[in-house]
Amino acid sequence: MSDDNVAADERQPKTRPPKLVLGLLAANLGVSAFILVKVMGGQAHATPHEPPPPHDAARKEVVGPLVALDPFVVNLDESGTPRYLKVQLQVEMKDGGAVKALERNKTLVRDRLLGYFSGLKLSETLGADNKDQIRGELESQVAEIVGEGRVRRIVFADFVVQ
Question: Which site among 23, 67, 96, 119 is 20 to 30 Å from 37 CA-CA?
Answer without folding.
Answer: 23
